[in-house]
Amino acid sequence: AGLIFFIASWxxxxxxxxxxxxxxxxxxxxxxxxxxxxxxxxxxDFSSISFSFSNGLGGNTAGxxxxxxxxxxNFIALLFPTKFLPQALYIIILLKVMVAxxxxxxxxxxxxxxxxxxxxxLAVAYALSSYVITYIGNLMWLDAIAFLPLLxxxxxxxxxxxxxxxxxxxxxxxIVANYYTAFMVCLxxxxxxxxxxxxxxxxxxxxxxxxxxxxxxxxxxxxxAAFSIAPTAFNLLENKLNYSxxxxxxxxxxxxxxxxxxxxxxxxxxxxxxxxxxTITLILTISFFFNRSIPIKVRLASLLFSLFTAxxxxxGKLYILWHASQPPQLFPYRxxxxxxxxxxxxxxxxxxxxxxxxxLKISTxxxxxxxAFYFFRSRKLLFLNAAACFLALLIALISLALVIxxxxxxxxxxxxxxxxxxxxxxxxxxxxNNIKQPSTNITNYTAQTQTFINQLxxxxxxxxxxKSFLLNNDRGESYTFNYRGAEVFSSNNDPKISDFYSLLxxxxxxxxxxx
Length: 515
Description:
Layout: H1 2-11, H2 27-43, E1 51-52, E2 59-60, H3 62-69, H4 85-112, H5 116-127, H6 130-134, H7 142-159, H8 165-177, H9 179-199, H10 204-224, H11 226-238, H12 252-263, H13 279-288, H14 296-309, H15 316-322, H16 337-351, H17 357-381, H18 386-407, H19 414-434, H20 442-454, H21 458-461, H22 477-481, E3 488-489, H23 495-503, E4 508-509, E5 512-513
Antiparallel strand pairs: 1-2, 3-5, 4-5
Helix pairs in contact: 1-19, 3-11, 4-5, 4-7, 5-16, 5-19, 7-8, 7-9, 8-9, 8-10, 9-14, 12-17, 13-16, 13-17, 13-18, 17-18, 18-19
Organism: Lactobacillus mulieris
Protein name: YfhO family protein
InterPro entries: Uncharacterised_YfhO
């Protein structure tokens, strides 16, 4: 997955190591500045860890640490000069993608005993899902994706009565790395434990014991993470949790009609759930629910668990609940990485079981109906062009043929597995090429601006500074160059300050203020 990601990002001009620029998310508009602050705090001035005058007019930084800066991968940034932070962040992203792939591969072998072709290809599909390649710039969300398969293995062990110390440690790390996605993961794990407990139920005594193990382990993980989440919670109570932005106006009825397009090749929309994990993965997921060699109890429980995980697509209240009770701005459906996980999880489960010809015919018919709905309904709602539709249908039919040939034992499993890997590579490459923008030379800009700021009198640095120029739309350059600025953007900012800016006639809204 790492090699595929490296090559695809190089071709798509988002590989910082090869002269590209990641324009998705807020990486160059926000996160590079935070990582410069991360470097300065840990290497030069630890006193600014809780309060910084670079934070707008000066403010508590606990929320920024809890959301952006506490991933264990972030220590890699300390090995690079500030001007090479883009390259450092690319390496961090690359490592998270590799860990996500490796952890899913290990999970599929541990729980479903998959052979290498399918374990590797499904791991690549998970690590390079449309969610990951679209939101790659929001690197702080990737820890949850990287660690989730491992957590699922440990929760499965807990549901069988085996206490898991690795679960405690890894869940604590996940919470510390990013409290926001950790909330989603914790909610998911509660549902997954109930799901597994039902499947592994033997008697009430064991169920109560296993539930106690899960509760103790989870609470212990939370206690270990308290050094991070406690100050973060107090910071959020001062601002974010005390302020409500407008809830998005989403027609969930239309979203469900458009979902087939988001599960097939090529179609990407920032305003729809990003659910593509490969067409073969989708076919296998559908086949799982019609495979009579899998007990009906397992399939029905899996269906209910799927509805639980996808409940955020049912109505606005559940949608906001999955987003930690705060409506997301700009990037919607942030929790759907959990849905992509269960799709690949059930595909892995399906491959671990025999599939009869009769069941294969039923799942084939269901997938063809799915394609018909995509062509006659989803395509029209999204105004998809003919070329995109043709390509998606072509890959879908090839994928279906390969799955049928595999289950009838006419081809080696490496053939459909290799095609799935190729599809994920093409998906990433085409998407990144379609959003390609001119590369930004952040390294030169940082070096030149730092030289300019170093020439200012020392007395000037003790006062408020503001520049008449900036890189892209980065309102946090006071973090990058360590001066007392007057503008900043962070989802953990105090909205009362932005209201104050507005009263002064300055640009300010929600979580940003600009001088």
